[in-house]
Structures are given as C-alpha cells and as structure tokens.
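This section describes the prediction task in plain terms. A model, or a person checking by hand, is given the sequence of a single protein chain and must write out its three-dimensional structure as a string of tokens. No templates, partner chains or ligands are provided. The sample shown here is typical of the held-out split.
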Amino acid sequence: MGREFFYITLYVKISIIADEIMIAYLRTLLLNLPVCLFLGSSVGLCQDMNSGFKMLENGEFGEARSFFEKVLADFPQNKTARLCHGRAVGLSGDPERAIKTFTTLLNEYPGDTEVRLNLAESYLWQKTPTQAIPVYTSLISEDPTQFGAVLGIANSYSMDLQYYKAYQYINKALELQPDNGQARLSAKFIRLGFANKLASQDHLYDSAFQLLEENLTIDPNDQESLALQANIYIISKDYALADATYQQMQDPITSLKGQSVALHLLEEDELALEKATEALELTKTSDEYAERSMEAGQHYVSALLWNSRLKDAGQFQDSLYRANQDPELIATQAEVAMYEGDFVKGIDRYNAYLEFKPRSFNGNLGKANAMHALGMDKSAYNMAFKSKVLFPGQLDVLNFIGNLNLAHSPRVSGEYLYGRASDESIVTGWTTSGSLSIDPLFNVSFSYGEKEFTPPTEGTVSTSETFAIDLKRQINKRLKLNTHYGAVRIVIPDSATSEFRSDVDIDVDIWISKSQKMNVGYQTEIQDFNAALINQNLKTQSIVVKNIMFWKNSNIGWYSELYRTYFSDGNNRNLLFTSLYRSIPSRPALKFGTNLLLMNFKESKPINYYSPLSFVKIEAFAGLEYKGKRAPVSVLADLAGGVQFVDGLTQGNWRTQVVISRNAGPFEIQLKGLYTTISETQAAGFSYTEFRGGIVWTLSKKPVFFKKISK
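The expected answer:
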C-alpha cells in the first residue's frame, strides 16, 4: 500500500529546479547588473574611490559599505559616493535602507537617470519587482534604447514570473548590446524560468524544449539547461531521453541520481539501485564529494524502497540520521514509513518536516497521500489544495486530486449472472447498482437485482427481487463504520403469493497497527443461493470477526475470519478460515500460500442443505494480479487445490477464479469466471460454475461535493 500511495519522491521535482534557477538568477541581479556611475568632478576623489569600486565589482559589499562611509564622512554630499554607499548597503542585505538613500537622492535630483536606475534595482534586491517595473517603464518611455532600463525591466518581469514579457524585453536588450555578458547571463536564466513555467504549469513541453535549445545552442554543456531538460523529459514521460540527458551531466552525483530515477520509471529497479549505489560509493571514496553523503544516502534509501528492500532501507535511514541529525532526513523517515504501510507514523513525520519546511512539496503532498491511505480524504483534499496553491500546475498534485475525485465520483454499473451447480440447478439474473459520495468521508451505495432459480428437476422456476443500500462512514484514521440493509421479495413456486424478507449487516473496520486491521460485525442473511433454499425460507444470523495482518518488510500476510452462525431452523454453525501467504510485488504481482478451513454444524441436515458435522479443508493456492500501465487489460486470477475431510470421507477439491477488466474512457468492462467444488460460506455445498459480465460507468470526473470542498 505504501508503494501505491507514495509516489511523489520518485521524481526529481521540477519545482526544486525552479528554486535553483531563482537562486542563481538573484545572483546575476546582485553581482552582474552594476549601473554606470559618474565618478565626480574631483580627480583625487575619483582615485580615492577606485578601491571602493573594485570592492563592489568583486562582491565585497560589507567592505565597500565601510569604505564609502569613510568617504562620506569627508564628502557627505558627493553624489557618486552616496550612490555607491547605497549599493553597498543594499547588496550587503539591507535593501530598505538603500531604497531610502536612492529616494532621497531622487528628491534632490528629480528625473536623474542614474538615480532612477539604482532605485529600480534596489526594489529587485528587496524582491518587490512590481515596484521596479513602473520606474523602468518610465525610463524606457523616455528612451527606448536605454540599455540598463531594458535589461532591468526584463529582470523585473522575470522575478515577477511574467516570463513572456521578460523574454520579449531580454531579446530587445540583446538587440541593443548583443555581446553584453550581463544581458546574455540574464537571458539564460529567463529562458530557464520561462521553460520551467511552460513545462510545469502549462504543460507545453515542445515550447519549453525550444527555449532550452536556445541556451544549449550557445553552450551545449550548460548544466542548468540540461538538468531542466532532463526533468521535463521526466514529467512528459520520455524516460529514456531523460536517462540519456542525465548521462551528459558533469556532476557525477546529479548524473547518477538522475539516471537512477529514469531507470526506476522505466521499471528497471535493480539497475536504478546500482546507480544509487555508485553515487553513494563515490561520496565514500572521493573527498571532493564526501560532503554530499547525506544527499546520496537519501536517494539510496529511495532506491532500496523501489526494490522492496524495506528492512535495509529502514536500517540505512536510521544510520544516516544518527550520522547527520539533519532535519531534511525527517522527509526520508516519512518516506520509509509510507512504504512500510505505517501511515500514522508517516503523518507524524510529515508534520514534523512541515514545521521545519512549510513550503515543502514532498511534505505537503506526502501528508495528503498519508491521509488518503488512512481514509481521511477530507484532510487529503485540503492538503492537496494547499499543494496546488503552492505549486500551481504541478502534475503530481493534479493527478493526486484527480485520483481522489475518481475514488468519490458517482458511478452506476450493470451485471449479468449465469451459474450452474453440479445438481443441474441453474441461476440467472442481473443487477444494477450505483455509488455516491456525499462527502469525502461518507459514501452511499445501492443495488437492485432480479434472479431466476431453475431447480434440477422439472418444477416451477423461483424468482427473487433484491434491493440493498449500504452506508460507509470513515470515523477517524483508525475506525470505519459499514452498514447494510437488504430487502428481498421472493415468489414461491406453486403459490399465488410472494414473501418479503430483509437482512441487516453492521460492522466496523479497526486499524490496530501498521500491520494489523480487524473487522468485527453482525450479519443477517437470506439464503437465496438456489431454489431449494428459497423454498425453506432459511435465514441466518452471524457474529463475524476478521483479522488481517501483513508484514511489509517480509511481504508475509495472515488472514483469518471466524463465524458463529445461527439458522432460523434452530441449527448453528462454527466456521474458521485462516490463510498464510507470501506476496511478491513484481510485475505481475504474485501471491501464494496455504488455507485451512474448519467448519461444523450442530445438526446435520443433508436433505435440507449442506451441513456436515465435521469439515476440514487444507489447500494451497496461487494468484496473480497484472495491471500494466500500457496493458490493454487487467487480469486477476486465483487457483487453489487441496483435500477436504467431510464426516470421515476424504476427497480432493479445487477452485479457480479469473477476472478480466478493461477501461475505456469513463467505462470499465469486466468479465468474471468462477469454478469451485464447494461453497463453504453458503448453506449449500457442491461444485458450482459461474460467469458474470458487467460494465461500470463513471458519471463524472468530479464528485458531487467537489465544488463545496474546493472552496
């Protein structure tokens, strides 16, 4: 289950690349957009300030700030010194004071181009580009060839994420000064930001690739462009091209991690682990990469999880945390918990990580996944909507919301049944049903069906009409309540009247731990399996306890159910079924194990129904489930065989079931086949063959409550 619900850390996120682009871009603003300064009228003063100018050019802003403070002590009204001091103050981390300095200068020198350029740039240091844009616009309206203003407004629009306008203005800047290094560097990062937006938010991959190609034409080895190109290949599902692009990366850790992700998405998990291992070993054998051991270690944990080596992943994650004590590793703890199926712990770890990093993509969507895994879909929706605001257009977020919607979308279905028992009795019928989620925690479903029962000898055909309604309510992350009411109208053979009968079930699912879930309930049932049972007007009441245990570290499961059943004719039955199995999460997924069934009745009434005083069955079984991403159909198949001991008699038995389904837009078509030599949970027991065919129609892509909850 952890693998099913937790998929978000499998990708190198494009949003992370966007953050790296912005950081690098800000550096270009701080270090590579100096404004021409007049050096003043005094040659001596000019010579005195040359060392200060070099400090600014070299990024020594603290030293430059101190230098120009000394100059201003002697020449407090020197315009150049005041401008340089303002730049040093702003670039050393105090943009608000710099803005005040330039605003004061602008009051003294109204309309001064140099002061206005510095003022506009100081707004960028403050990360308020919307204040810079009007200043640059005013300068450009006065002189469209003012290079500093054209370059500045391009950078401002880029910082404000208005990449189309930024791209237009940076091209104008390059027309004015094609060889200007500052403009070319800004152009590179504007193309990166624009490409990132087109891919991650607008999903216009071809346009994004064209922008990156402009960068790569200038420098085929540009690492930022190659990294973003590889990530766009990932989200556009061109995994082989992503792998090839990651191989071009000069940084070996980034290259190996990227190749590992691409191989995992190509379903080559063993090779993905090999690449992750190479990256980890590189940090151990090379001093140059030793400081990145935690980064490589986190990815190694993910690769172990992909290969279902949960125990190894947990142990390595523990050693990694002991060695680093870094809050970033809390996210890795959450990832391991999710794969292990410990969703309560996963939520706890994500909460801790979000306290440290509230805008984390993995933290927000990871918590949404954990909530969904526990059935707390209202909270899952809320976390997903929060992620959508933080990361607009992110495909993983949109897909997650889409899957939630699909789980709660209204649907109707129809099914036809044909069954034949070994006594030549036949049952045919049809059922129509529907399901509606009132809110993310409450579901209502209904069904109506008709059956005809043909007895093994000549006689009147019995018929029944069945109506049922089911209510399911998720109470909290550990409790789910299920209720059922069914009504049956039975037409009795050779009678002018019909009978109305009803049954009620109520049970509760209880999550005991990450490995154990129990179901406790009370059931009533109308025995309408065949005509003979209908004629007897047989009803049952059962107390049921089910225990489901699964240890994900070893992929071993143990399932048991216990029935104490009381019959309306005074008889009663005890039934214990237990199954021990091993699951192999491969493609297709395989499962095999052994089943044991013990059953006894207080009285044996073979003439009326199958009721042995002693019944023991031991069988081995195997099953497979195939749901390939590109497969035309999904297949679920089971085969079991063994021996059963019935009141001292020994006989072999076997059963098989196959379910084939195919999705076609809003429709799912299902075909089912079943054969069994005994029906232990029914009151009758003999060989039985059944075929079903049905179709499920999802009426809309969104649940009825979506508009309300999305607000």
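For orientation: The two ends are 30 Å apart (CA to CA).
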